Amino acid sequence: MPAIDDVSEIPVVDLPGKAPVSKHILIVDDLKVNFLLIKAMLGKISVTLTWCENGFLALDHIRKRNKTDLILMDYNMPGMDGLEATRLIKNLAPEIPVISLSTFTENPLFDRKNAPFDGYIPKPVNPVLLIELIKEKILK
Q1: How many domains does the chain have?
Q2: pLDDT, tens digit, for every residue of 7-22?
């Protein structure tokens, strides 16, 4: 299946004391519907979204040095899961925060202590929690 890139500007909301800025968020999820849901949830903050449908494309996106301020990473994907993709991305660009979006990382058997993620949001994604975490990580 060919890659589908959907890059879009989302309307700006004023942040107190800050000039409006556009941050770049990479969403890595094998289901386009999940990308579209997150895009709708983030409609009130100034961000540019890029979608990669698997870990291989996300890794390529980072290797090409595309501007990326934050990555929202699905855990369970075919080919290369989110854990492996995040480990490889962190080797290339450790400064980019990666937030796991998954039900799996809520499992008590998942070893958060040794995982490379900078935050966790369970699915189904709570939009308030998502925006709060994004603001904490990149809109300080």
Answers
A1: 1
A2: 333 333 444 444 455 8
pLDDT digits 0-9 by tens, 14-70 = 444 444 558 999 999 999 999 999 999 998 888 999 999 999 999 999 999 999 999
Distance (Å, rounded) from C-alpha 75 to C-alpha 55? 10
Q: Which domain holds residue 77?
A: 8-138
Tell me how far apart the alpha carbons of residues 4 and 16 are, in angstroms, rounded to a whole number: 35
Is the CA virtual torsion 123, 124, 125, 126 positive or negative? Answer: negative
E strand intervals along the chain:
8-9, 23-28, 47-52, 70-74, 98-101, 119-121
Query: Is residue 54 situated within a structural domain?
Result: yes
**Residue 81 CB neighbours (<10 A):** 17
CATH number, residue 93: 3.40.50.2300
Q: What pLDDT is recorded for position 52?
A: 97
Residue 1 inside a domain? The answer is no
Instruction: Look at the block and give the residue holding tokens 């289901």.
Output: 31
pTM (2 decimals)? 0.83
What's the whole-number mean pLDDT along residues 93-101? 97
